[in-house]
Design brief:
globular; single chain; alpha/beta; 8-stranded mixed beta sheet; D-Maltodextrin-Binding Protein, domain 2; 10 strands; 2 domains; two-stranded parallel sheet; 262 residues; 39% helix
Length: 262
């Protein structure tokens, strides 16, 4: 009898553990942003990208499976706020009662130690013979800088007085616009300066180059839908802590692996 009771308790505990961690819906852009998100459209490729693999590993650390949901970039935040997805890469909420939350410190400030540092670098045409030390914040006040449509970066650079063309949602389209002299530069956020160099070299040869000086430094958080966070606070906090402890090293390792075969 005692043995049967023990077995029933084990089954019950197993069921509770399974219920405690249902598949987590992680949303991200459906447009390729090599090496972070690979491929276009709703289908997730076999090599999904550096950040996608990082998200999987972060939730694997707390025993949670991940369901990947690819969305147009402008819809990712909307889906996160509405609860259509549970988790997504995010900027800091613009108000305390926003529909999603990010990692905070004990005193309620955003916790940069549990975020990923990102830096917006600028690519220009080699034929323009700009010095690699050119300051993009000055140069693009009188020249046109492309940025991906729907990104906070485009909004921030416009507010800073730069001439920004954010009419295209595709990084490769913006690189083509740069090559064809429709814009004078293209900027996007990278987690390591050289992350995209191999892809650009493979696609454009020596036509394009990256300026040494970034146009903006910022952070990316893993945002959680507010209701989801309230229901799964412990596991989300553990994921954020894992990112703070391992995220930068994992991104570097994954980026090197993807760069080996751009």
């Amino acid at each position: 009898m005692k043995r049967w009771l023990s077995l029933l308790l084990l089954v019950a505990c197993g069921a509770s553990a399974a219920e405690a961690c249902q598949p987590v819906r992680v949303g991200y852009s459906d447009r390729e942003r090599a090496p972070y998100y690979m491929g276009n459209g709703s289908e997730v490729p076999a090599q999904p990208g550096v950040l996608v693999e990082l998200f999987r590993e972060a939730f694997r650390s707390v025993g949670c499976p991940v369901v990947l949901v690819r969305l147009p970039v402008a819809r990712v935040r909307i889906a996160l706020v509405s609860g259509t997805i549970d988790i997504a890469p995010a900027d800091t909420p613009d108000e305390r009662q926003a529909g999603y939350v990010v990692a905070n410190t004990a005193d309620g400030a955003v916790d940069r130690k549990r975020a990923l540092a990102i830096t917006a670098y600028v690519f220009v045409r080699s034929a323009d013979k700009l010095s690699p030390a050119t300051d993009p914040m000055q140069y693009f006040k009188t020249h046109t800088l492309a940025a991906n449509q729907g990104t906070l970066l485009a909004t921030q650079l416009k507010a800073a007085g730069l001439q920004v063309d954010d009419g295209s949602f595709s990084s490769w389209n913006n690189f083509d616009k740069l090559r064809l002299k429709r814009v004078d530069g293209f900027t996007l956020a990278l987690m390591t300066p050289t992350a995209l160099d191999g892809y650009v070299q493979a696609r454009y040869g020596n036509q394009l180059m990256r300026l040494d000086k970034p146009v903006r430094n910022s952070y990316m958080w893993l945002g959680a839908n507010r209701a989801y966070y309230q229901q799964h606070r412990e596991q989300v906090e553990a994921v954020w802590t894992w990112l703070g402890a391992h995220g930068a090293q994992e991104v570097d390792a994954l980026t090197r692996r993807y760069a080996a075969a751009p």
